[in-house]
Amino acid sequence: MSVAHEERAIAVTVPKDKSEVISSFIPADFDVPTGREEEWRFTPLRRMKPLLTALPQNDGATVEIDGDPAVIGVDAAQGPIQPGEWLVPVDVVSALAWAGAADTTLITIPPKTDLENPVTVTITGTSTSYQKLRVTIEHDSSATVVINHQGTGQHAENIEVEVGARSQLKLVVIQDWDRDAVHLGRIHSHVGRDATLTQVVATFGGDLVRLVSTVDYDGPGGSAELLGAFFADAGQHLEHRLFVDHNEPHCRSNVVYKGALQGEHAHTVWIGDVLIRAKAVGTDTYEINRNLVLSDGARADSVPNLEIETGEVSGAGHASATGRFDDEQLFYLQARGIAADDARRMVVRGFFTEVLDQIPDADIRDRLWAAVDDEIGAVGSGVGS
Predict the structure, then answer these.
(1) What HEC string does 250-280 produce?
(2) DSSP string spanning 5-50?
(3) How does pLDDT run across 31-51, given as a tens digit for each residue?
(4) What is d(CA 208, CA 237) in angstroms, rounded to the nearest whole number?
(5) Rounded mean pLDDT of 367-384?
(6) Cα separation of 82 and 217, whole Å?
(7) Is the pLDDT of residue 380 over 50?
(8) What is the band of 95 on the pLDDT scale with cuts at 50, 70, 90?
């Protein structure tokens, strides 16, 4: 470990305001959350209790990678995990996962490479595990990387992403867990000069899923498009937290997350934080969250936050709205001869189109649309209500 990494590993950043958090690679630097903390107040801690302390067994998942070995570099780094270059854990679960992961899955796209087919990483859970992945797309390249989660168990994960200068990365992260799974994850992306990141997060499975997505920049001209779609059934807790750190001038970010809920005690949480630092002149940023409540007993919490330290911005704004299914739209379609189930499907599909149609791979896109249709069918039949 280098001296710089050693110093970073022991450093603890104490928050000065809500835009900053404690960050450290050492689990002992974090207090175990009680649920009274702002960053944990929405999360059902009892359902994730095993992940709050070191797991006795942390290899209960398999990792499979599908990609052109002649083009991409794939490796599983054995032995102790070194501190990341860009991602630093911001909570005890992330720190435990970093310290406890036995291997690191490394995916590297070399410079000046345009990948025609996606690289797919499939993580299949069986019991409990820690996962660490690093995706690096070097300068002047373009690629699509899909990270798919499935199976059962309780899992904590860190995903570190570096997008090189003038490169374009489409990152699709899918949570298609079995109904009893628990997944806590951190995704940090470092976007290079004049580079473009399009990140799509789709969450449909699991008992409890809590994902923290963070972005920062490595030079002017970087762009981050963060899109999300989630559908919570009765009893499910799906939580998505985002922080975009505009730390360089003339960069762009756009956040669009859409969620649907149905059934007793279905709960979704969306927290969107954007910080425009004093040096980040010319920033253009917007974030929006929309939630569609399909039945009684469901709850959606949505909190957008925008902090600006400079008056020289190109644009900055945020919005959030949560509403019930529009029965007038349903009546309008039925009055024109469309069956009730088909009309309901059309309305909900239209709600998610803005996000799911951004997924570049047709097979994955069709699979997620099928998941939406299954959820809509459950609404129409009264399941989960």
Answers:
(1) CCEEEEEEEEEECCCCCEEEEEEEEEECCCC
(2) HHHHHH--PPPSSTT-----S-GGGSPPP-S-STTTTTS-GGGGGG
(3) 999 999 999 999 999 999 999
(4) 5
(5) 68
(6) 22
(7) no
(8) very high
- Which is nearest to 216 in space by CA: 241, 190, 195? 190
Q: In the beta sheet, which residues pair with residue 271?
A: 241, 303
Residues in the chain: 385
Q: What's the pLDDT tens digit per position in 267-314?
A: 999 999 999 999 999 999 999 999 999 888 999 999 999 999 998 999
Strand ranges inside the chain, DSSP E: 59-66, 73-77, 104-109, 119-137, 142-151, 154-163, 168-175, 182-191, 196-203, 208-217, 223-232, 237-246, 252-261, 267-276, 284-293, 299-308, 315-324
How many Cβ atoms are within 10 Å of 33's Cβ, its own excluded?
17
Closest CA to 106 of 90, 125, 119: 119
77 contact partners, CB below 8 Å, separation of at least 6: 103, 104, 106
Which amino acid does the sequence have at 218? D
Residue-wise pLDDT for 100-146, tens only, equals 998 888 899 999 999 988 999 999 999 999 999 999 999 999 999 99
Burial degree of 191 (CB within 10 A; 0-12, 13-18, 19+) = buried
Cα–Cα distance for residue pair 179/161, rounded to 1 Å? 28
Could you give the count of Cα atoms lying within 13 Å of 292 in the half-sphere of its Cβ? Answer: 21
